[in-house]
């Protein structure tokens, strides 16, 4: 796009509109196109100038954000950041919005009675800037990836015991739909998966539930001490780091607080570094769509420990940031389209022997 990204804020709260406007206007890399109290008013504003990014409330009078989002994506696909209250209903609706094409989700900023921020504006600005660089287009659905994997996997149950290999995935902007594409294509016999998706606290429970419904795997938000086992995918909770730790013949996760790493919590780097240390060549690492470079250092540690490492290719990424950095720094030894990732994961799972590193 030419010039600075133009941002339209659509929210029925005058206080939120004021706060977000101030944050955008104070950033030299963004331009505030305008504000609107509901989608009807936003539509009138957009008839004059179409925004590059829309920050959209979930619940509003006259028309809700989800309905407006679907109209936008049908008429003129545009990067949309959903701004939601951290309630169960808000999280569930936000998951629907991400499935409908929104590229980012953030919690509404907390404000004091004078309208000041009680928390940093950095997460909001990062979400808007990531959205500004997003490729908003129709993505291949889960069925496309499902066709790439065996249709009749070996018999197994969700409670199948064993250790075997482990699959570690990291994603950010655009990752919610990309992860659904991958997980929905995996059979219940797949090795245990550990996943970091950059997402605010309060949203990851709903996200895990959505993936659980969409796949043959058991998908859950990770809790401290959960076992990593075949047929199970553990999602790092929002605002918590997740690591793996060897326990006897298998692995379990630890979930806890800690400083931001690579500007994130949960951090893909934190997870991948623990996988490199604990699982070495019995793990595979995949870095997927997202802005920035979180996960690249950890993926390189996995590579040096003997693990095969992949990056999602540019054509299928919503934001080709993290994968690009992984390729440029040599952390990812293979680049794969989104729909090819499940096949590569299963090929690793079925391979005999182990790799060694020199």
UniProtKB/TrEMBL annotation:
<dbReference type="InterPro" id="IPR035909">
    <property type="entry name" value="CheB_C"/>
</dbReference>
<keyword id="KW-0597">Phosphoprotein</keyword>
<dbReference type="Pfam" id="PF00072">
    <property type="entry name" value="Response_reg"/>
</dbReference>
<feature type="active site">
    <location>
        <position position="294"/>
    </location>
</feature>
<dbReference type="GO" id="GO:0000156">
    <property type="term" value="F:phosphorelay response regulator activity"/>
</dbReference>
<dbReference type="InterPro" id="IPR001789">
    <property type="entry name" value="Sig_transdc_resp-reg_receiver"/>
</dbReference>
<dbReference type="GO" id="GO:0005737">
    <property type="term" value="C:cytoplasm"/>
</dbReference>
<dbReference type="GO" id="GO:0006935">
    <property type="term" value="P:chemotaxis"/>
</dbReference>
<feature type="modified residue" description="4-aspartylphosphate">
    <location>
        <position position="57"/>
    </location>
</feature>
<dbReference type="InterPro" id="IPR008248">
    <property type="entry name" value="CheB-like"/>
</dbReference>
<dbReference type="GO" id="GO:0008984">
    <property type="term" value="F:protein-glutamate methylesterase activity"/>
</dbReference>
<keyword id="KW-0378">Hydrolase</keyword>
<dbReference type="GO" id="GO:0050568">
    <property type="term" value="F:protein-glutamine glutaminase activity"/>
</dbReference>
<dbReference type="Pfam" id="PF01339">
    <property type="entry name" value="CheB_methylest"/>
</dbReference>
<feature type="domain" description="Response regulatory">
    <location>
        <begin position="6"/>
        <end position="123"/>
    </location>
</feature>
<protein>
    <recommendedName>
        <fullName>Protein-glutamate methylesterase/protein-glutamine glutaminase</fullName>
        <ecNumber>3.1.1.61</ecNumber>
        <ecNumber>3.5.1.44</ecNumber>
    </recommendedName>
</protein>
<feature type="region of interest" description="Disordered">
    <location>
        <begin position="142"/>
        <end position="161"/>
    </location>
</feature>
<comment type="function">
    <text>Involved in chemotaxis. Part of a chemotaxis signal transduction system that modulates chemotaxis in response to various stimuli. Catalyzes the demethylation of specific methylglutamate residues introduced into the chemoreceptors (methyl-accepting chemotaxis proteins or MCP) by CheR. Also mediates the irreversible deamidation of specific glutamine residues to glutamic acid.</text>
</comment>
<feature type="active site">
    <location>
        <position position="198"/>
    </location>
</feature>
<feature type="active site">
    <location>
        <position position="172"/>
    </location>
</feature>
<feature type="domain" description="CheB-type methylesterase">
    <location>
        <begin position="161"/>
        <end position="352"/>
    </location>
</feature>
<dbReference type="InterPro" id="IPR000673">
    <property type="entry name" value="Sig_transdc_resp-reg_Me-estase"/>
</dbReference>
<keyword id="KW-0145">Chemotaxis</keyword>
<dbReference type="InterPro" id="IPR011006">
    <property type="entry name" value="CheY-like_superfamily"/>
</dbReference>
<comment type="similarity">
    <text>Belongs to the CheB family.</text>
</comment>
<keyword id="KW-0963">Cytoplasm</keyword>
């Amino acid at each position: 796009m030419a010039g600075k990204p133009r941002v339209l804020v659509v929210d029925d709260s005058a206080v939120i509109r004021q706060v977000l406007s101030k944050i955008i206007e104070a950033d030299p890399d963004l331009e505030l196109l305008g504000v609107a109290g509901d989608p009807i008013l936003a539509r009138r504003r957009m008839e004059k100038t179409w925004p590059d990014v829309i920050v959209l409330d979930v619940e509003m009078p006259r028309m809700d954000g989800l309905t407006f989002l679907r109209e936008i994506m049908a008429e003129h696909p545009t990067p949309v950041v959903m701004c939601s209250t951290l309630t169960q209903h808000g999280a569930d609706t936000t998951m629907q919005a991400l499935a409908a094409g929104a590229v980012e989700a953030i919690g509404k900023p907390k404000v004091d009675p004078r309208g000041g921020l009680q928390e940093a504006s950095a997460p909001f600005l990062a979400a808007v800037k990531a959205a500004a660089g997003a490729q908003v287009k129709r993505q291949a659905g889960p069925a496309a990836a499902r066709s790439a994997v065996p249709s009749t996997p070996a018999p197994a149950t969700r409670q199948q015991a064993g250790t075997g290999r482990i699959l570690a995935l990291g994603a950010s902007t655009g990752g919610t739909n990309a992860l659904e594409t991958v997980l929905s294509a995996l059979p219940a016999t797949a090795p245990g998966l550990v996943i970091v998706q950059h997402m605010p606290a309060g949203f990851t429970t709903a996200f895990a539930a959505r993936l659980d419904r969409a796949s043959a795997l058991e998908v859950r938000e990770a809790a401290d001490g959960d076992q990593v086992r075949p047929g199970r995918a553990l999602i790092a909770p929002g605002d918590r780091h997740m690591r793996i730790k060897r326990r006897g013949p298998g692995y379990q996760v630890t979930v806890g607080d800690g400083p931001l790493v690579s500007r994130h919590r949960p951090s893909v780097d934190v997870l991948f570094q623990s996988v490199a240390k604990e699982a070495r060549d019995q793990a595979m690492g995949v870095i997927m769509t997202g802005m920035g470079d979180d996960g690249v250092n950890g993926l390189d540690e996995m590579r040096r420990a003997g693990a095969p490492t992949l990056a999602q290719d540019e054509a299928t990424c919503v934001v080709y940031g993290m994968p690009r950095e992984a390729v440029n720094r040599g952390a990812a030894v293979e680049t794969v389209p989104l729909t090819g990732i499940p096949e590569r994961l299963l090929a690793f799972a079925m391979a005999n022997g182990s790799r060694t590193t020199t």
